[in-house]
Amino acid sequence: MRLVFWAGFWAFLVDQASKYLVVHTLNLREIGQIDVLPPLLNFHMAWNEGINFGLLSNSAEAARWILIAIALGISAFVYYWMLKDRPQKLGLIAGGLLIGGALGNVVDRLLYGAVADFLNMSCCGIDNPYAFNVADIAIFAGAIGLAIWGGTKKQA
To answer: Which of 15-29, 57-71, 90-104, 122-136 comes out lowest in average pLDDT?
Structure first.
């Protein structure tokens, strides 16, 4: 289970460090947008009070605590699942990524009241209006990884 810890630790650390850098050091909170490699990569500050794509953002305070509880519950469930049906190496890394990313977004909700999203990517004439963060990448990669490498027990 060391792999779960280290994958989660690094996902969490990179997520929180990147958010600190862009929100506080680059002052993206005030600037709003920085073109990094336009149009492919831009930093675009977005405070997500809901879930993906701003869903549930109308009831911010209630949603904040519900989403914190859900993220902690999912993290605990994934950890328990990996204890009971221990996956191979890639599955353990995937579980750690998911847990680390979820905890990164929990910390945002506790500190800021919303998740700090700042990565925006567009390509090929398609203008993407949504922003995401490193934790979202870790959660997505972890979920896909768990779907592929999630367990060792065979179903009859």
So the answer is: 57-71
Q: What is the mean pLDDT of residues 101-129?
A: 92
Nearest to 120 by CA among 22, 5, 14, 6: 22
Cβ proximity of 79 and 95 under 8 Å: yes
- Token pair, residue 138, equals 């870790």
Is 108 one of the annotated active-site residues of the chain? no
HEC string of the chain equals CHHHHHHHHHHHHHHHHHHHHHHHHCCHHHHCEEEEECCCEEEEEEEECCCHHHCCCCCHHHHHHHHHHHHHHHHHHHHHHHHHCCCCHHHHHHHHHHHHHHHHHHHHHHHHCCEEEEEEECECCECCCCCECHHHHHHHHHHHHHHHHCCCCCCC
pTM: 0.87
pLDDT confidence of residue 125: 82
From 10, 7, 32, select the one nearest 22 (Cα to Cα).
32
Active-site residue flag, 35: no
